[in-house]
Structures are given as C-alpha cells and as structure tokens.
Amino acid sequence: MNNNYRDKNRQNLSSLGRTRNSGEDLANKLKVKRAKSKNIHRTAIGLTALVIFCAAIFLNNSSVSTADVTNVKENGIGKGMKAGTVLVAADDLGLQAKDFNVEMKSNVKTGRLLIWDYAAEDGDVVTVKADGKVIAENVGILHEPFSLDIPIPSVVEVVGIKDGGGGITYGVKIPGAVGNSVFFNAAPIGSANKYTITGPVK
Amino acid sequence: MKWLLAIVFYHIVMIPVVIMTILLPFILYKDIKTILINEVPVSNGMDAVLAMFSFFIYLAVRSKFLGKPYRKITILLPLLQMLIYTNGALVIGIVILNKWANDGLYSKGWAIVFACLAIVAIRLLMSLFYRKFPIVQTDYR
C-alpha cells in the first residue's frame, strides 16, 4: 500500500518536472528565434548598406576629368558622357561652331534631342528646327536638359537667338545614337549648327 | 564624454537622416515623374545619399548605445529599415528609367515595364523576408 502511494507520488513529481522543463524549453526556443530574427534584420540592413555603397561607387562615375575637357576642345565630342554634363563654370571653353553627323542604332525608331547649357546658365536662347520646320522656338537653355522629339532620319538645326554672354554654348545628346556621345557646340547668333541624323548603315 | 561624442558625430547627422529617410520616397517619386513627363534623365546622386542613410541606420540597429534614443519609439528603426529597402527599389527604378532617358537602351514602354518589375520584385522579396523573419521587440533597457 505504502509502496503504491510512493510510486504514484514519484510519477506525479516527474510529470510536473517535465511540464516545467518543456515550458522553459519553449521560452528558450522563443528567445533563440527572436535573437536570430533580430540578427537577420541587423545583417540585412548592413548588407543593404554595403550593396548600395558599392552600387553608388559603380554608378556615379559621371565626373568630368581634365582629359575629357581636352578631348572635347579638340573635336567637340564627349564620348559616353551623360546629358546635362556641365564642362566648365564660365563660357570660356572656346569651341567653334560645328556641324555633326549622327548615326542611330538599328533598334531606334523615334528620336529625342536633349539640349542644355554646358557652361554658365547665362540666358542663352536657341531655336531648334527639324527638316526646316521649327520644333521649338526661343528656348532658354539651362543646365537641366530640355527634350524635343525629332524624326529619324532628319536634319536638325540649332539656331542661335540670344547670347547671354561669352557665346551661346550648348550640349546636344540624341539617346540611341551610335557611340552614345554628347556633342558640345557654340551657336552663332542668327545662324545654325546642323546635325544630320541618319538611320543605321546597312 | 561617450555621450558627447555620440551627439557630435552621430546624433546630429542621424536626426536629419531619420527625417530625410521618411521623405525620400516622395523625392524619388518626383524624380520618376520628371523622367517620364519631361523625358530627361535626372542626376542620380540619390544612391550615394541612400548608402549614407543606410549606414547610419545600420549603426543604430547594431549598437545598443547609439540606437538607444531611437528605440524609445518602438516602430522607428524597423520602419526606417523598410523605408531603406523601398527607397533602394525606387532608386533601381530610376536607374532603369535613366538608361532609357539618357542612353536610349530600350523604348520608353519597356523602361516603364522594367522599372515596375524591379520595384515590385524588391517589394515582394521584402514581404517574403518579413514573413519569414517577423519584426521582434528587442530587450534593450
């Protein structure tokens, strides 16, 4: 009788201990899970910072070197430069008015002409014509590019209207052109620079 | 002394970082609108700004000491982390749109499709990530 009672007591005590143990286990597991989750969020934001930092270094290679400026002085072409590139702070690059031939890539059906002032924003004004028709009249050019739709193939003329000081200085980029170049130019007042835009050479 | 250094070198920068991180999606949205409406590329310096912001937020998450004031508002640090991921997605969208606006790599339609896909993909990954690893309250007291 006494032995039975003792055995039952032992059983009850051991089951109580198990319950307590499993409760602690659950709490510990939860703690571990929380810590893991917290660490993962910490790692994720750290990795994101690193990835964005590397991407920023890789993507922001748009600064203009003195070698680039020298090249532009020679032929007026800035290879691979971005639209809106400002070459010099004042209108003193000394570029001569030039005409350019622009060849488009094979997959380009419609064209856009981006035009901006690559030197000082001094109130230069131009008029843009495509195949003799005016497509934008008296456009005040700024550092921020201005976009115009142009037909392909066509002959685009940029006519100088007003000089804000130091000559009418402007850059032109036609996205989708072979070489992805920027054309830096100076427009004489009353006369035009011509851009002969051709389709892909077959 | 420790606190003074933290205030001078960290918190003075971190407070504008918090405000700007919250405002950044609106600024990036405006950039996207400018590219699509004016059809001109925007200067992409936002990735460098975002890299700096995410580094400062990482420091707040990493260090108990530096992040202490920001844990007073429980939701702040997780919210900033989510905003960094969202801003990252928007910056990638801008890079894709800029490739059309500046280089003419693809048509405007494809640029919009690629940008939308990139943004949706990152947001989807973010949702999966937070589903698998939900935000937990830390016990820094």
What does this structure look like?
The complex is a heterodimer of chains A (202) and B (141). Helices cover 34% and strands 29% of the residues of chain A. Chain A is α+β, with helices and mostly antiparallel strands. Chain A has two domains: 1-61; 77-198, no CATH class. A five-stranded antiparallel sheet of chain A has the order 1-9-8-3-6, covered by helices on one side. A five-stranded mixed sheet of chain A has the order 2-10-7-4-5, with no helix packed on it. In chain A, strand 8 (168-173) and strand 9 (182-187) form a beta hairpin. The model of chain A has no long low-confidence stretch (mean pLDDT 83). Chain B has 141 residues and is mainly alpha-helical. Chain B has one domain. Chain B is elongated. The model of chain B has no long low-confidence stretch (mean pLDDT 91). Chain A binds chain B through residues 34, 36-38, 40-42, 44-46, 48-49, 52-53, 55-56, 59-60, 62, 82-84, 105, 108-109, 112, 114, 144-147, 173-177, 180, and chain B through 38-41, 43-45, 47-48, 50-51, 54-55, 57-58, 61-62, 78, 81, 84-85, 88, 91, 95, 100-104, 107, 129, 133-136, 138.
